[in-house]
Structure formats: C-alpha cells, structure tokens
Amino acid sequence: MLEAFTDFLRAGLVQMRHADSTLEAELAMAQRYLELMQIRMDGRLAFSIEADAQARAAALPTLLLQPLIENAIQHGVEPRVEGGRVRVRARVAGGRLELRVDDDALGSGIGQPVPGAARRSAHQPAHQAAHQPAYRRGNGMALANIRSRLHTRYGAAASLALQLRPSGACAVLDLPYTAHP
Amino acid sequence: MTTALIADDEPHLACYLREQLLQLWPALEIVHIAPNGLDAADAIARLQPDVAFLDVQMPGLSGLEVAQGIEGGTRVVFVTAYDEYAVQAFDEAALDYLLKPLRQERLARSVGRIQAALALPGAGSGGALDDARLADTLRRLLAPAVAAAPATPLRYVRAGQGAVTRQIAVDEVLYFQSDDKYTVVRTAAGEYLIRTTIAELASQLDPGQFCQVHRATLVNLAHLDSTRRDEASRLFLRMRGHDAELPVSRAYVHLFRAM
After folding, report:
1. Sheet strand arrangement including A84-93
2. B residues 152-191 closer than 8 Å to A (CB)
C-alpha cells in the first residue's frame, strides 16, 4: 500500500510542475489512485481504464481527469454500502478527445421504484430501517473548477457534462485532440 | 467483561484499531467489526456492547446516525478524520473521540477514560444530562444544511399513490418513520410513502408538536398515548389508535420523564 501511495504522490508532484501532460501520464496516475482506493475499500470498488494508443498520446492539461475520478469515488461509490464500479474511457473521433468517467453507484435516485411488498412492517424495530442516502450530493466545486480551466484554455471549444442517472453518474469531457509532440 | 464493537468502512483501519485496543486492554472483548453504518446499528441492537467505536463517515449510516439510533446502554467513541473544529462537537456527544490517524498514546488515554466511565455507578445509562447533551449535539450535527427554518411550519404532506396524490394534514399524522429510501407517513387511517427524509421533515414541522424520538422516527405529541419501559430500561411509545410500539433511542429518553 505504501508503495502505491508513494508512486501516486511522486507522479502527482511531477505532473503539477508542468501545465501540460499526456493522457498516458494522467491515466497512469488514475490507475495508481484507483488501486489505492481499492486497498482502502477492500473489494467494494471495481474499476477499468480503456484507452487506445492514439488517445493515450493526446496532450492534456494536468489534473483535469483526476478530480472526475475522485468525484465518482467520493459521491458515487464510497457512500454506497455495496460499493460499485468506476469506468474510465477515452476515445478520439473527428479530431476530438472524449473522456468519460462512469460509475454505477449512487445517482439521482429519481425513478427508483417505491418499495411495495418488501415494505417493513410496523412491528420491525426501527433500528433496522435502512436509510441509505438515495442520491448523491456535492458542492460542485470540482466541476466548476474544471469548467473554468477548460474555458481559459480552450474557450468554447471544450465542454464538461455531468449526467446523473437513477443510479450512478457519468462525467464527459470533450476537448480538441492534439497529439503530444 | 467489557465488550466493544468497531465500525469502520476501511477494513485495514478497523483491524489496526482492534490490534491496538487488544494490546492496551487485553480483557476487552471485541464482539463485532462492522463494515458500514447499517451493519453497525444492527449489531449494536443485537449484541448490546458496552462501547462502540464508530467511524463518523461510513456508507449506509454515518457514525452520528448510528449513535442517534442506539436504544440500549452502549456508549460511543467517535473515530474521525475531521479537523479539530468539528471534533469538539463530537467530544460533547460521546465518551471520547479519536482522530485519525490513530496514535497509540492517545488511544491509551482514551482506554483509561472509557474504563473510568464504565466503572462509575449507573454507567451505561449515561445520565440524563449526558443524554440531553447527546441529543442536542446530534440534532445540530445532523440538521440538513437548510438556510433557515421556514417561517410557517409545514401543515400538509403530499404522497403519491399511482396516479393519485393524496394530501394529508400533519395534524392527523401519528408518526413519520424512515423506511429505506422513503418515509412512512402513519395516520389512524393507513400509511403512505413520501420521499422527504426524517431530517428534512424535522426542520419543517412545528417542533412543539413533532418530536424526534429516534434516528428513524418523528412522533406527533398530540397523539401520544403512553410510554412503557421494558426490563432492559428501554423506552417505548404508544400512539392513540395504533397498536405498534415505537422505540425511543437513548438520546431522546429524557424527553419522556413522568412529571
């Protein structure tokens, strides 16, 4: 665990010294972060990272992707008893780079069926009344920060969208593709 | 023999705390390690340990919510990674609090404190003052971040039943009780489900009329019929025109003393 942690710190420090990174380096850091979280959460977290060579060669501002992955863990997987899966995907199409961070854990909670037959009887002790948070909360700081960085760097040519599903969420970063020189 | 429960969603930290505790207090029996708040609440009710070491941030229920739901004599030590500011509040509500990362000399002091508290006559009951303080602190810590209490208290709740939305006057409600992701609205006529949480309702209803008696339960005092203590000195409420008894968690027992 200590090894994974020191690797993560070292990578983070190196990347912070440069404004620009590559998707390759950002994904390597994401991988270490997710491995660390896996150790902490002991089996409640599953993850996958999918990106081809062309996508990995993309130039990318540092620490743009990382907060989205942290959000998926903090607001999606960690508060859910059963945990969940985080999926990081990158693809290049039509001169653009699309990064998706998906999780299948807590979402908007909207549209989930009202429990009918499985309802607790009034005689069951109240301590057994499970009260999982049904939807995710956050203060939107990370998203606002990413949006403002995108705007400074790319103007209107880049965007960040967050979709909350009944369970889980998906963050999509869309920006112009440039291969790292 | 003193029994203890540890609740932490990080198994490595739970194991570490357990090892440290057993070194400092070999006679302590750790009866359960809970990986989340729901499991912790369930195990505390079932095993009635003397002490529960509760991580504050856990999935399912937070450590604070678990503490709010304790019905028996279990005393609480919060374990938290929060900063000093927040931690002071926990100190008021619990036997002790521990800051992560755990330090052995601090834990040793805590063990001394727990042993002293449990050795006092009447240990376990916590005393009315302690309980009142616990209830007050928990209410403050668990209050949803609403800007301000509404000027006029909520008078009706609306519950969807298929295509029909039913309006229920809060005066007719016997109690509200959380049920998984929903809240059950119980009236003499029947029960309905709404999405508003107990904490949200508590902040919107008239506090002179509706009283929280448990993490999961808000009762309408106008319909309270009687209270009963069982042999384990746990308190139960009975509402007029309703058969089931509602348990009162320790933090709220002091509200129902006979006059």
Report:
1. A45-51, A84-93, A96-106, A167-176, A159-164
2. 177-182, 184, 186, 191
Calculate what percentage of chain B has a pLDDT beyond 90. Answer: 44
> What ipTM was estimated for this complex?
0.74
**Which of B5, B164, B181 to probe the A interface (max A CBs under 10 A)?**
B181
pLDDT score for A140: 75
Termini Cα distance of chain A:
34
CB contact under 8 A, B59 and A40: no
The string of pLDDT tens digits covering residues B19-74 is 999 999 999 999 999 999 999 999 999 999 999 999 988 998 888 889 888 888 88
Rounded to whole angstroms, how far apart are CA atoms B256 and B259?
A: 9
For tokens 């609205």, name the residue: B185
Per-residue pLDDT of A100-131, as tens digits, reads 999 998 887 665 544 332 333 333 333 333 34
All residues of chain A having their beta carbon less than 8 Å from the beta carbon of residue B41 are: 127-128
The three-class DSSP label of residue B229 is strand
Note the Cα B6 to chain centre separation in Å: 16
* B105 token code pair: 């000399």
A117 touches chain B (CB under 8 A): no
Q: What are the C-alpha distances in Å from B82 to residues B58, B86, B88?
A: 13, 6, 10
Of A39, A44, A114, the CB nearest to B182: A114
